[in-house]
Amino acid sequence: MDKVIINLANPRGFCAGVDRAIDIVNRALEVYGRPVYVKHEVVHNRFVVKDLEDRGAVFVEEIHEIPDDSIVIFSAHGVSSKVEIETNLRGLQFHDATCPLVTKVHMEVIKHARAERDIILIGHEGHPEVEGTMGRHTGGDASKIYLVQDEIDAKSIEIEQPDNVALVTQTTLSVDDTKAIISQLKNRFPNLKTPKNDDICYATQNRQDAVKQLALENEFMIVVGSKNSSNSNRLKELSDRCGCEAILIDEFNDLDLEKIKNINKIAITAGASAPEDRVQEIAQALKDFTGGVINEIGKEDSDLSNRIVTFSPDVTVSTSLGGWVNQKQIYNRVKRTDIFHDEKVVSAQKWHVSPDGQHFELGIAENNLFLALGAAGLSKKMFGSSLIPIGTIYDTFISRGLDALNYAVYQDARFLLIATQ
Length: 421
What we know:
Layout (H helix, E strand, L loop, with lengths): L4 E4 L7 H17 L3 E4 L6 H10 L1 E4 L10 E4 L6 H9 L3 E4 L3 H15 L3 E5 L5 H7 L10 E4 L2 H6 L8 E5 L5 H14 L13 H16 L2 E5 L5 H12 L3 E5 L15 E6 L5 H15 L2 E4 L11 E5 L9 H7 L1 E2 L7 H4 L10 E2 L4 E3 L4 H11 L2 H5 L4 E7 L7 H9 L5 E5 L1
Parallel strand pairs: 1-11, 1-12, 2-3, 2-4, 4-5, 6-7, 6-8, 9-10, 9-11, 13-16, 13-17, 14-15, 17-18
Helix pairs in contact: 4-5, 8-9, 13-15
């Protein structure tokens, strides 16, 4: 019998939004002590929830369950306007761990409601993200919001303003399922206004893309995640549809070992709310049981990430560099500790400063941004070793540093500039 190959998907597991939410709860416990109250499970994973409960987090479904003068955290799934108002009226101090991509969808709903458009939300009824997004609609009679769960709904739904309707989606859905629903809606509502960028989060999409490939190369798929995790369920369903039988489990003991007898190629992936230690424990237990070998997909040694340097003129977090800085640190010739930690600020940011840092925080100085990008972009010519400089900026502020930008381009400096609205 051939040796069993256990292929670990890449990417897999925790996304940046989940990491951020868990960090916020842990930081709140560190700053305020126990208990800290969290509106709904911060993420849909029973091991993560149990760990946080052991540390002093208390998970509730309703704000009225929270005692006066308590610290409150909104989960990664987001909350409705009503929940936020109720929290404020009670004078409770709260910290928002809502995933930034969910917040983006909330802002789209608010924008369309103010423009008096009807809104279609593609999502699963009862999911906390959907409840929060629906609850951000405050359009009154001038705008209505409708939930569509599948293609059947898309074929039958009746809209009051069929020529003035916009679309948003739950962020953790299957990309393929959503495309089919959107296609059906566009056929029925030709003027349907869709987002400039897909609402499905990139972490969800990347993990689904990895599963599609793994399903072609393996005989069986293990998805690590909890039963109430939407994105984990979508990974299992996707693998099944691609012809590779899959199972969703929280731990190795959940696995029916009869299913993997006589199977030589097994893939393991994990939903965006599943911790990496669970993946490693299951992979190791599977290796011990089968006598197989573990293969990390896409884990070849490379110095690519070590050559990336990022620059931002005081817009690091709002241009989505926060997670990168947490990992790679801010550059400074003198090492300093995390200022958020020192000042007891409840934040997902962990901004250590050191000579090994790969991010340059410039303050509000667009001219300096382009000068720095230009200098770093000439590293190959000047020192014989290429850096990969990346700068982020709000597009409306590019004009503040045009002279420096033009000079950098004239010098043939090589860099990436990412502008956002």
